[in-house]
C-alpha cells in the first residue's frame, strides 16, 4: 500500500514563520500608530501657542512618514464670520534653502497626472475632493518644488470637517496601504489640534470684539459727560475729536468748521459747491504720527472749499460719509488741501457735520495704511457727528439769545430735551441698523450657502467629466449630481419668485372643490418613505365623514408639503408625525382646522415671533435650509384667506417638546354658497 501524502516539515515551518511575521508586522504597525498618536496628544497638551503646536505636529508627521513636506490646513467654518483658515508647512532640511517658485503646480495639472492625489479616507466624496484641493491651493503656494504625489485626509471634529493633513512628495511615489492606515489612525488626534486652533482664533476674535465694545462704550460715556459739561465749545470739540480718533485707533483726527460767505441757512441747490471757508478747530494725532511729520500745527489753519476736491465730494454726495482707501489714486480734479498731508495719510474718512440739511463742518479721520471701516464704527462716527452738530447749533443758538435773559432758561431746557430726544433716536437708529445688518448677514450667509454648494458640486462634476478615461458609471453619477444640484437651484429661484408674486397685489385664488380626506391621505402617503428614512412614522387622524373644501389645489398641496418637510427636518428620531383635520364653526363661519405635530427641539417665544419671516431661522439650528419654507407657507395661507400659528409645548421628563403648526382655512363648500 502507498502511504498518504503529507507536507514536508520545512514547508510547514515556512508557513508558521510567515504567519508569525505578519502578526509581528501588524503589532509593529499598531504600536507605531499608538506612539504617534500619543506624541501628538502630548504636543496638544503641552503647547500654549496654537501656531507652534501645529508646527510641531507637522514636523512630527513629516519625519514619521519620511515625506518631503507636511502641510496642515485648518478648514474655516463657513457658517461663522469669525473663523479663519490657518496653514502650517514643514519641509525636509534639504528643501529649506531652495527659492520659492513664482507659480504653484496647478490643480488641473495635478488631476491630469494621476495618481498624484490620493486620499486615505474611503470612499472619497465630492466634498472631500473640494476640501483637499482647496487646502492644497491655500497651503502649498510657497513650496519650493512642484508637487508630484500627495496623500491627504480630511479631519472631522464634532461631525464637521475642520482641517486637512497633506503628505507631499516632490518625486513620483506610490503610497502603501500601511501608510494610508497609519494616516487614518492619526486623523482624530489632528482633528483635536485643529479644533484647538479654531477655538483659540474664536476666543481672540471675541476678546478683540469685547475690547472694541468697551472702547466704544467708553467713548459714548465721555461724549455724554462732555455734552452736559460747562466747557467752552471749542474745548469740548477738541476733547471729542481726540476721544473719537483715539478710540477708533486712527492715526490722525481733524475737526473742521465751515463759514459761509452767504448766510448759513440760505437755501442752496443740491450738489452745488458753496462759497465757504473751512477752518481746523480740532486736531489729534498719535505720537508715532507726530514723530514722522515735521509739518507745523494745523490748528486754526483755513482754506477755501473751492480749493479742496476732498471737501467738495461731501457736497456732491449729498452729505454722505466720504471714504477713500487711497486718496493718492484720485485724479487732479479731487486735489486735497495741503493740510490734509495726503501723501503721508492717504486713507481718509470724512463725515459731514450736518444739521437740517446744512453742512456745518467735517470730522476727518486719516490713516497711513488702508483701513476697512466696519458698519458699527461708521454708525458710531455718525452718532458722534450728530452730537457735535447739535453742540455747534446749540452754541450758536445760545450766543444769539444771550441778551434775552428772560427766555434763556426756557430755550436751554428746550435744547436739552431736544438733545435727549435726538440721542434716543440716534440710539434707536443704531439698534435698528445693527438688527438690519444681522438680518443682512444671515440672509447672505443662507443664500450664499444655498447657491454656492450646488454650484461647487456642479463645477466639480463638470471638471471630473472632462477627465480622460472616466468610466461610464462615474459619468452617469456626475450627470446625476449635475441634474440634482441644478434642480435645487431652480427650486430655490422658483420659491423666491413665488414669494415675490404673493407679496405683490395679486388676483383672488382660483377655488375648486376637493375631498379633503382623500387629499390629505395622498400627501401623507407620499411622505411615508421620506419620513421612514429618518426613522419617523406618520399618523393621520381624519373625521369619518369626508370633508369638502373650496380651495386652490396647488397652494393647499404646497402648504402641507412644506409643513411635513419641516417636521421631517426637525423631528427627533423614532417619533411620530401626526396629521389631523377637523371641522369647526367659529362665529357662524365654517372652518377647516389642520394640525401638523412633531416631537423635537423647543421653539422659544423669541423664535416664534419671526419663524414665518423670510430668511430667518431658529438660533442654534444647523439643519441646511434657506429659511424660505415657512415664509412661503404663511404667504400661501394668507393667499387662501386663512391663518397659521405655531405652538411649542414641553414634554415632561424630557428635553424635547411637542411642536404643533395649526392651519385654519375657511370652508366654502358647495352647499354653503348662497
Task: Walk me through what this model shows.
The protein is an alpha+beta fold. It folds into 4 domains: 26-203, Beta-Lactamase (2-Layer Sandwich); 245-368, 2-Layer Sandwich (Beta-Lactamase); 457-503; 512-666, 2-Layer Sandwich (Heat Shock Protein 90). It is 48% helix and 19% strand. The protein is built from 15 helices and 18 strands. The chain has helices at 9-46, 50-65, 107-112, 126-139, 177-227, 233-247, 287-292, 309-316, 375-400, 405-465, 472-503, 516-533, 553-570, 605-610, 629-639, and strands at residues 69-74, 87-91, 117-119, 149-157, 160-169, 252-260, 276-285, 302-304, 322-324, 347-355, 358-367, 512-515, 537-541, 548-551, 576-586, 589-600, 643-650, 657-666. It has a 6-stranded antiparallel sheet with strand order 8-7-6-11-10-9. A hairpin with a 6-residue loop joins strand 17 (643-650) and strand 18 (657-666). Helix 11 crosses helix 15 (629-639). The longest helix has 61 residues, at 405-465. It is flat. The chain starts with 8 loop residues before the first helix and ends in an 8-residue tail after the last strand. The model is unreliable at 110-114 and 670-674 (pLDDT under 50).
CATH topology category name of the largest domain: Beta-Lactamase
Q: What's the structural domain tally? A: 4
Any guess at the CATH architecture of the largest domain?
2-Layer Sandwich
Strand content: 15-25%
CATH level-four homologous superfamily name of the largest domain: GAF domain
Amino acid at each position: 500500500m502507498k502511504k498518504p501524502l503529507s507536507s514536508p516539515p520545512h514547508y510547514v515551518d515556512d508557513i508558521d514563520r510567515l504567519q508569525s511575521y505578519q502578526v509581528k508586522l501588524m503589532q509593529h504597525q499598531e504600536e507605531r500608530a499608538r506612539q504617534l498618536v500619543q506624541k501628538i496628544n502630548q504636543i496638544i497638551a503641552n503647547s500654549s501657542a496654537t501656531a507652534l503646536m501645529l508646527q510641531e505636529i507637522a514636523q512630527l508627521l513629516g519625519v514619521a512618514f519620511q515625506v518631503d513636506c507636511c502641510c496642515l490646513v485648518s478648514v474655516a467654518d463657513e457658517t461663522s464670520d469669525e473663523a479663519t483658515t490657518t496653514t502650517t508647512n514643514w519641509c525636509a532640511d534639504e528643501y529649506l534653502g531652495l527659492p520659492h517658485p513664482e507659480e504653484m503646480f496647478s490643480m488641473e495639472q495635478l488631476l491630469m497626472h494621476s495618481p498624484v492625489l490620493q486620499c486615505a479616507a474611503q470612499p472619497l466624496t465630492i466634498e472631500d475632493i473640494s476640501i483637499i484641493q482647496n487646502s492644497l491651493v491655500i497651503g502649498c503656494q510657497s513650496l519650493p518644488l512642484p508637487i508630484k504625489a500627495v496623500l491627504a485626509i480630511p479631519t472631522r471634529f464634532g461631525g464637521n470637517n475642520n482641517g486637512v493633513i497633506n503628505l507631499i512628495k516632490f518625486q513620483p511615489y506610490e503610497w502603501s496601504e500601511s501608510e494610508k492606515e497609519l494616516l487614518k489612525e492619526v486623523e482624530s488626534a489632528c482633528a483635536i489640534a485643529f479644533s484647538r486652533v479654531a477655538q483659540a482664533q474664536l476666543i481672540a476674535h471675541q476678546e478683540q470684539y469685547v475690547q472694541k465694545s468697551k472702547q466704544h462704550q467708553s467713548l459714548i460715556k465721555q461724549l455724554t459727560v462732555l455734552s452736559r459739561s460747562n466747557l467752552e465749545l471749542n474745548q469740548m470739540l477738541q476733547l471729542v475729536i481726540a476721544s473719537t480718533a483715539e478710540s477708533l485707533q486712527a492715526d490722525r483726527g481733524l475737526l473742521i468748521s465751515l463759514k459761509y460767505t452767504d448766510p448759513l441757512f440760505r437755501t442752496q441747490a443740491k450738489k452745488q459747491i458753496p462759497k465757504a471757508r473751512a477752518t481746523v478747530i480740532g486736531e489729534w494725532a498719535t505720537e508715532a504720527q507726530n514723530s514722522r511729520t515735521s509739518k507745523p500745527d494745523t490748528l486754526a489753519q483755513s482754506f477755501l472749499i473751492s480749493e479742496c476736491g476732498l471737501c467738495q465730494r461731501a457736497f456732491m454726495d449729498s452729505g454722505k460719509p466720504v471714504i477713500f482707501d487711497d486718496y493718492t489714486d484720485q485724479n487732479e480734479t479731487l486735489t486735497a488741501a495741503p493740510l490734509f498731508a495726503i501723501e503721508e495719510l492717504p486713507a481718509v474718512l470724512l463725515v459731514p457735520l450736518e444739521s437740517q440739511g446744512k453742512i456745518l463742518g467735517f470730522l476727518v479721520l486719516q490713516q497711513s495704511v488702508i483701513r476697512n471701516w466696519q458698519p458699527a464704527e461708521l454708525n458710531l462716527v455718525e452718532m458722534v457727528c450728530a452730537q457735535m452738530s447739535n453742540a455747534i447749533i446749540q452754541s450758536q443758538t445760545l450766543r444769539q439769545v444771550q441778551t434775552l435773559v428772560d427766555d434763556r432758561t426756557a430755550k436751554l431746557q428746550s435744547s436739552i430735551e431736544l438733545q435727549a430726544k435726538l440721542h434716543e433716536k440716534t440710539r434707536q437708529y443704531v439698534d435698528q441698523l445693527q438688527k438690519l445688518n444681522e438680518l443682512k448677514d444671515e440672509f447672505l450667509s443662507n443664500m450664499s450657502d444655498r447657491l454656492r454648494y450646488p454650484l461647487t458640486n456642479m463645477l466639480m462634476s463638470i471638471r471630473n467629466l472632462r477627465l480622460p478615461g472616466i468610466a461610464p458609471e462615474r459619468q452617469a453619477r456626475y450627470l446625476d449630481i449635475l441634474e440634482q444640484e441644478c434642480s435645487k437651484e431652480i427650486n430655490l429661484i422658483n420659491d423666491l419668485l413665488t414669494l415675490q408674486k404673493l407679496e405683490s397685489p395679486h388676483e383672488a385664488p382660483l377655488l375648486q372643490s376637493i375631498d379633503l380626506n382623500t387629499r390629505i391621505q395622498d400627501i401623507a402617503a407620499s411622505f411615508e418613505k421620506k419620513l421612514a428614512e429618518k426613522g419617523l412614522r406618520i399618523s393621520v387622524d381624519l373625521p369619518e365623514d369626508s370633508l369638502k373644501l373650496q380651495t386652490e389645489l396647488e397652494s393647499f398641496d404646497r402648504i402641507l408639503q412644506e409643513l411635513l418637510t419641516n417636521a421631517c427636518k426637525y423631528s427627533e428620531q423614532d417619533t411620530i408625525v401626526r396629521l389631523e383635520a377637523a371641522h369647526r364653526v367659529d362665529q357662524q363661519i365654517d372652518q377647516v382646522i389642520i394640525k401638523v405635530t412633531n416631537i423635537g427641539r423647543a421653539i422659544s417665544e423669541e423664535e416664534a415671533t419671526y419663524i414665518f419671516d423670510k430668511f430667518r431661522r431658529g438660533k442654534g439650528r444647523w439643519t441646511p435650509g434657506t429659511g424660505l419654507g415657512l415664509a412661503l407657507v404663511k404667504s400661501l395661507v394668507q393667499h387662501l384667506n386663512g391663518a397659521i400659528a405655531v405652538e411649542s409645548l414641553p414634554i415632561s421628563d424630557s428635553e424635547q417638546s411637542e411642536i404643533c403648526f395649526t392651519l385654519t382655512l375657511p370652508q366654502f363648500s358647495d352647499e354653503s354658497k348662497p
